[in-house]
Amino acid sequence: MNVAVCMKQTPDTEAQIKISDEGTSIVPEGIKWIVNPYDEFAIEEGLRITEKHGGEVTLISLGPPSVEKTIREGLAMGAHKAIRIDAPAVPSDPMVTGRALAEVLQEGHYDIILFGKQAIDDDHTQIASIVGGFLNLPVVTVVVELHLDGNRGTAVREVEGGHETVSFPLPAIISAQRGLNEPRYRSLKGIMAAKKKPIAVKTVNLEKEHLVIEKLSYPPPKKPGRIVGEGPKAVPELVRLLHEEAKVI
Amino acid sequence: MKKFESPDYYNVDDLLSDEEKMIRQSVREWVDEEVLPVIEQAYQKAEFPLHLVSQMAELGLFGANLPEKYGCAGVNNVAYGLMMQELERGDSGIRSFASVQGALVMYPIFTYGSEEQKDYWLPRLARGEKIGCFGLTEPDFGSNPGGLQTKAVKDGQSYVVNGAKMWITNGSIADVAVVWAKLEGEIRGFLVEKGTPGFEAPETKDKHSLRASVTSELVFQDCRIPAANLLPNARGLKAPLSCLTQARYGIAWGAIGSAMACYDEALNYATTRIQFDKPIASFQLVQNKLVYMITEITKMQLLALQLGRLKDQNKMRFTQVSLAKRNNVYHALQIARMARDILGANGIVSEYQSMRHMCNLESVYTYEGTHDIHTLIVGEDITGIPAYS
Hints:
Chain A is of the alpha/beta class.
C-alpha cells in the first residue's frame, strides 16, 4: 500500500498562547511545537497499514523550513519519507492549503491518504474534505476503526450518539479520530534513523487567501468556583446545579 | 495531571540538538505513561516491574550509546545521559536496571569480548531477551575492589570459579553475570550463565532503598564455565573500573532526574499548600530551599552536559566523571531531603514521590564508588597524592 499522511505542526496543547500586538496572529516565541495530536493517530495508522500490507508511508506537510522539525518527529515514528511543500507561512485559509496538498497528492498515486480529523490550533476541520473534493475521492471523517482489504476499505465513524460503519473503494481519504489507535513511542533507533530519511521540498503556486483573519481574541476569563454548602446536606443542591446549570449529569 | 517539563533556568535546552531533545521527550513520555503509574506500588511491594523490560528494549534504551551493528541505537553520549535523567525521574531502580544492562554488561562485552561473544550477547541484551548483571564488589571488598578474592582456575577446557559477590543489581533475574575474578593473580572477566551448576544468586531482602530494583549476592562453588566464556581482552583492575566509569557517567545524569522530580513536586506543593492564610512558598525559609534546589539543578545540568560533550569528543577523563557523580548525587540527595521537608507530613506517604527518591539516592550516594572515594579520586588527581594507599 502506498500511504500518504498529511500532517501539521501545531503549538503544544499546554502552550500559553499570546496574541501578537497587531491582533491577527500569535506570538511564536516560547511556543513548543508538536505534531498535531490527531495527525499522530493518522501516522500510526499509516504505519500499521504498511506493516500489514507492505508499502511505504510518505508524510506531507506544508510550511516554511521550520516545520521540518516536526516532520522529523513523524519520520522518527517510522514513516519512510516526507515531502515539505514550501510556503513562507502556513496559510490561514484551508482552501489554499487543501489545493496545494491536492496538487502534490495527485502526483503520488496513493492508495490511501490519512489526515488527523482536525488541527488543534485553528480547528477548521476542513482539509480532508477539501482535498477529497479536488481529487474526487471518497472521504471518511472522524474514523475510530479502519480495515483495508484488497481495493476496498471499511471504517467505523463516530456519529452523534453512536457509531456508523461505512465501506468505500480505494483510493480514499480518511480523517483520524482519537481512539483509532495508540500512537507508538519514538524509539531511539527510530529517532536516529529519522535524520537520514529524505525530506523532499516541493514548490507549488499558492493561490491568494480568501479567508483573512480579522482579529484574534482570548476566551472570557473563567468564572470563579462556587461553594454550594458543606457536608451531605449540600449534595441535593450540588446535584441540581450539575444537572440544570452545568448540564454535565 | 500536568505534563512534566524539566526546569531549565539557564536555557540549557538551547545547547541541545533537536535529536537530543526528541530522545529526551520520548523517554519522558514513556516514564509518564508506563513507569509513574506503577512505580509506587512496585516500590512498596519491593518488586522490580519486570514487564517494563521489553518496553525499554523496544525504545532502544539498552546500550543505547553502542553501535547499531550490534542492534543498539548508536546515540551520542548526551542523548544517552538525557535518557538516564528521564529514567531516574521515574525511579533510580529503573535507571539502575538500564545502567547495569548497558554500561556494566553490554559495555564490557563490547569492549573486552571476542567477536563471537559480541555477536551472541549484544543483540540479545539490546532486545531485552537476556538480562545481565555485573559482579565486582565482594562482602569484604567494596571501595577496595583490587583486593577481591574470587578465584578462577584453568582446568582443561574450562575455568572453575570460587567466591562470592555482593550488592549486585539484577543478580537474581540475570541470565548472564559478568564476573571479575583473579586468574593466576590477575583480575579477569568471565561470563557466567544462569543455571550453571555451582552458581546461585540469592536476593538481598528487606532493603530501605532501591526497593523497585533487584539486589543480590552471587555465590560460586566450584562453578565450572567453558573457557570460551573468558572476556579475552580484559586484564587487570582497569577493565572493571572502565565499566564503572561508563555507569558513573549515567548516574551523574540520572541524579538530575530524581532532583528534578523532587523540585517539581516541592515547588507545586509549596505554591498550593496554605498555612497562616498564604501559600507556604511565600515564606522566606521555604523560598531559600527552593532556590537552593533550582541553583544546584542548574549547575548539575551544565556539569553533566559538558561532561557528555567531552565524552563525545573522547576527551573525558575518569576523574571528571568522579567529580560529576560525586557532585550531582550529593546535591540530588540534599534536594530530595529538602523536598520531603517542604512536603511536611504528606512527604512520608506514597502519594508523593520525594521520599522514595530520597531513599533511593542513599544507595546511589554509596554505590559505584562512594561519595568519599570519589572525593579521594579527585583529590589524588589535583594533588598527585593518593590518600587511600
